[in-house]
Write a structure and sequence with these properties.
The complex is a heterodimer of chains A (308) and B (432). Chain A is mostly beta strands and 308 residues long. Chain A has one helix and 24 strands. Classes of the chains: A mainly beta (308), B mainly alpha (432). Chains A and B meet through loops of A and strand 6, helix 14 and helix 16 of B.
């Protein structure tokens, strides 16, 4: 009898030990798996005029968002409340003839890249044109051509300069803080993002690679090898409040989620026309609750909730 | 202890048996042929080989009668009773022919050039000199034959082998023995006054000669490429470069599109007036990403064919295009996809519309140039027919097709079967 109890106790202890080992592993890996659910799609400006080929979307932590309605040469403001997106105004300026990228700072000022003039417009929160963003004390080459912009939580502005093959880092008053050279042996750098810790990441559309800035030296290095297995032509990269990276694959019509060590956490969405699916997506913005995607060839903005 | 000893015994036995088996396997006499039977035994039946073996060059194993070095006399999983796949078989003796990590490799079967038994030419080659190369490289042969101005090494006995290694190159593209210009300056003395004079005294000794010259021959003097940029043809180097005496003689007065705009003002301004500019036009190399500044064998001074140029960045799209082209179900494939003419649908420099299209509607505007889409089928199409899947889209060509090709799917549709395509909108059919 004593032996029988001892054997059962032993078995029980083993089971508990195995469970103890499994549970944290499930917590770590289970939590890191990327999943999302479709919340809604925005098809028009609230006045019946449809969105046309939107290329970017910017969101704030309180779920206000601005759409670069590229095909209609305008910006559209919305406020997401519950399950409804309320239109909050249209910005149409003669200086903004083809908005391809839009970002905001903590004061609500809007930075919009115009595809035609390739200039960055500064627009007040009320939608007034304030002037062009001109970097101060730019080092050689003095010319720059902006492919994309990013504004971090300190209101520092990052310009992806494809002419000078560098990232220009400006403070909120457009004074140059630093310039970071693109890594060597690149294909074509399409987009940059800056995470909550100030880490800079680049995506290379041609070589299907992600690059990260070394924290100590600031130099860019390849975070991944060619992601040919996952991506066809990535053109956008964003990060969430936990530092996870979301890469928009334009030709593949999907979102690849990656940890900062380069490990793949999942693929989201896929090619299609119905709500929840993407066709030639471009811009992406994530806040604590939602992911907003400019679904370019589907002429809409899609809003997803990330499942944590 | 007893158990340990029996284990040791078993292990020793296993090792011994393995050794015996291995020795048997590698033994030359594994087939236990009769004395003197070797190659002679094979020739008893394969009589035709006797004549073949009288040729000038005989493959060593054949000479020594080692037929079983390559063939299994009884059975094989490979053709011609070979011991293994033909290339592997050759590499089992000629293992250094292709260096590890070779930069370029001639990806053909060895038997395309060599006869495994015997041939009238050295190295058991099927043909002599350039004839062996031109058997496949017919375009090069035709160009060489029609060239008014010939490159002397091509016509020498060694011919192509003067510059190319027929098997592989460990460090260079195109199987070149050395990189350009090292390969060229091995013969052409760059210090000679005549060389300097012809190059307008510019220090070109470290430049890429093949940017201007066709090393295989040309109808232009000095084997220059067929299409020359006008300032080059007129020896007006100073239009783009500083004086040859300058420390930076090969630099340009401006970078990117700004340099080209000095002459091509109208076309450059037209490009820069568009809403969307193809990004490579805007970087520091600008036009030179796709065009050669000096000369080219193609039209518009392009660096290659349109699809090869586009494919340097858009490799994924070109892969799909090629797969569509090679799909036997796509016999009546869209002409630009078939011919790799990306610029038939896209404006390569700039456009006012997405996908670098000069038409607002890619579908009816671009496809409609060749396809009478209204007569395409009984399916309703056009701006008044809303796509049931998405209220911001109309039903058009791109609702079912992808204009650049969809790989293995027939008729450039997004899905593998017609049914799968139809049920995207007609869901009721899917439920039946």
């Amino acid at each position: 009898m004593k032996n029988w109890i001892r054997d059962k106790m032993k078995a029980l202890i083993y089971i508990c030990l195995i469970l103890l080992l499994i549970m944290p592993a499930e917590q770590i890996y289970g939590a890191e798996r990327a999943r999302m659910t479709h919340v809604m799609s925005i098809y028009d400006d609230g006045n019946g005029l449809g969105i046309l080929n939107p290329e970017d979307v910017e969101c704030s932590s309180n779920d206000d968002f601005i759409v670069a309605d590229t095909g209609r040469d305008r910006l559209l403001k919305f406020k997401l409340t519950g399950k409804k997106a309320e239109p909050a105004g249209e910005i149409k300026l003669k200086e903004l003839r083809y908005p391809t990228s839009v970002k905001t700072n903590s004061k609500g000022e809007i930075f919009a890249l115009d595809g035609r003039s390739r200039k960055i417009l500064i627009i007040s929160p009320e939608g007034e044109f304030q002037g062009y963003l001109t970097p101060d004390k730019l080092r050689a080459p003095s010319k720059f051509i902006t492919k994309s912009i990013h504004v971090d939580w300190r209101d520092n502005i990052y310009i992806l300069d494809i002419y000078g093959q560098r990232i220009l880092v400006l403070d909120k008053d457009a004074h140059l803080i630093s310039q970071i050279r693109f890594p060597k042996d690149i294909g074509f750098i399409s987009e940059l993002t800056v995470d909550f810790k100030g880490g800079i990441f680049l995506v290379d559309s041609v070589k299907n690679r992600v690059y990260a800035a070394d924290r100590a030296s600031g130099a860019m290095f390849p975070l991944t090898t060619a992601l040919d297995k996952y991506l066809r032509f990535p053109t956008n990269i964003s990060s969430d409040e936990r530092g996870r990276l979301y890469i928009v694959d334009r030709n593949g019509s999907l979102i690849l989620v990656m940890a900062q060590d380069g490990s793949i956490l999942g693929e989201l969405s896929g090619m299609g026309w119905k709500d929840g699916l993407l066709n030639y997506p471009a811009g992406l913005c994530i806040n604590e609750k939602h992911m907003f995607i400019a679904d370019t060839l589907n002429n809409r903005i899609q809003i997803f909730r990330l499942i944590k | 202890m007893k158990l340990l000893n029996s284990h040791k015994l078993l292990l020793a036995g296993a090792v011994f048996l393995s050794l015996i088996l291995a020795v048997q396997f590698v033994s030359a006499d594994k087939l236990k042929l009769k004395t003197g039977a070797k190659g002679q035994l094979c020739l008893n039946c394969h009589e035709g080989f006797k004549e073949k073996l009288s040729q000038k060059s005989v493959h060593t194993p054949v000479k020594t009668g080692e037929c079983s070095g390559c063939h299994n006399p009884h059975t094989s999983s490979h053709g011609q009773l070979l011991n293994s796949a033909s290339k592997d078989l050759c590499f089992s003796c000629h293992d250094r022919i292709i260096p590890d990590n070779a930069r370029s490799e001639h990806k053909i079967e060895c038997s395309a050039c060599h006869d495994a038994h015997a041939a009238p030419n050295r190295y058991v080659l099927l043909k002599r000199g350039n004839a062996i190369c031109t058997e496949c490289h017919k375009e090069a042969a035709d160009a060489d034959a029609s060239a008014r101005f010939r490159h002397a090494p091509v016509d020498e006995i060694k011919g192509c082998m003067n510059c190319h290694d027929p098997h592989a190159s460990d460090a260079n593209d195109n199987l070149l023995k050395k990189a350009v210009p090292a390969l060229c300056v091995a013969c052409h003395e760059t210090e000679k006054p005549s060389f300097l004079e012809r190059h307008m005294n510019y220090p070109v000794e470290e430049s890429i000669c093949s940017d201007c010259h066709d090393s295989h021959g040309s109808s232009r003097a000095f084997i220059l490429l067929q299409n020359m940029h006008e300032p080059v043809a007129k020896k007006q180097c100073r239009k783009c470069h500083p004086d040859p005496e300058s420390d930076f003689a090969l630099s340009t007065s401006r970078n990117g599109a700004a340099l080209c705009r000095k002459c091509h003002q109208e076309s450059t301004d037209n490009i820069f007036s568009k809403k969307r500019i193809h990004w490579p036009v805007l970087d520091r190399d600008g036009c030179l990403n796709c065009h050669s500044p000096h000369a080219s064998s193609g039209k518009n001074l392009l660096k290659g064919s349109i699809s090869s140029i586009c494919g340097t960045c858009h490799a994924d799209t070109i892969r799909l295009q090629e797969a569509s082209r090679n799909n036997p179900e796509n016999a009546a494939l869209c002409k630009p996809v078939k011919e790799g003419e990306c610029s038939a649908c896209h404006s390569p420099h700039a456009a006012d519309n997405l996908l670098l299209s000069d038409q607002e509607s890619f579908s009816t505007g671009v496809c409609g140039r060749c396809h009478e889409w209204k007569a395409h089928s009984a399916h309703p199409l056009g701006k008044d027919i809303i796509d049931p899947r998405n209220k911001n889209l109309v039903t058009d060509c791109l609702s079912c097709h992808r204009a650049c090709g969809t790989g293995n799917y027939p008729r450039m549709t997004h899905f593998s079967t017609i049914t799968e395509t139809c049920v995207q909108c007609h869901e009721e059919l899917d439920k039946r």
